[in-house]
Automatic annotation (TrEMBL):
One of its GO terms (cellular component) is ribosome. This is Ribosomal protein S18-alanine N-acetyltransferase. The keyword Chloroplast does not apply. Its EC number is 2.3.1.266. Keywords: Acyltransferase, Cytoplasm, Ribonucleoprotein, Ribosomal protein, Transferase. InterPro entries: AcTrfase_RimI/Ard1, Acyl_CoA_acyltransferase, GNAT_dom, YpeA/RimI_acetyltransf.
Length: 162
């Protein structure tokens, strides 16, 4: 039986996180970019969800004054449909509350309706469009905001035999 646990990202997680990034995104970040984020960017906060101590998803955000900008959210396809992306977002929102952050923003591909529905279900609203934001295909990004963070308490500490 395996167990999902959300923990802060450390350098030891980076190779696996990079593999997730390459599998999920058409223009993945490099391992070096993640190293800079967790070692040099004092605004950055990253979390990973592990399954039996192996990263299967992650989320990152930049905490700027009283706002958080979510930089990326990814879950391996083989671990989707288990509520992990939602749990990662909730865990980041818990961290936001602890640090006095009052609003959260992110960009999402206009064609990524599943992610948009997840974000909308968590209270995010579309507040604008970034034309040609994604460099791989010039796709527009929807700019979404969560303007009121409520206490959420993430919970993925569940066992599974999947």
């Amino acid at each position: 039986m395996g167990q999902y646990i959300i923990v802060p990202m450390t350098e030891i997680h980076i190779p696996a996180v990079h593999e997730i990034e390459k599998e999920v995104f058409p223009t993945p970040w490099s391992e070096e970019a993640f190293k800079r984020e967790i070692n040099d960017n004092h605004l950055a906060h990253y979390l990973v969800v592990t399954f039996d101590d192996k990263p299967v998803g992650f989320i990152g955000g930049w905490f700027i004054l009283d706002e958080c900008h979510i930089t990326n959210v990814a879950v391996l396809p083989s671990h989707r449909r288990k509520g992990l992306a939602k749990a990662l977002i909730k865990a980041l929102l818990d961290l936001c509350l602890a640090k006095g952050v009052v609003s959260v923003t992110l960009e999402v591909r206009e064609s990524n309706h599943k992610a948009q529905n997840l974000y909308k279900g968590m209270g995010f609203e579309v507040m604008g469009v970034r034309k040609g934001y994604y460099t791989d295909n010039n796709e527009d990004a929807l700019l979404m905001w969560l303007t009121e963070i409520k206490e959420v308490k993430a919970d993925v500490s569940k066992n599974t035999s999947d």
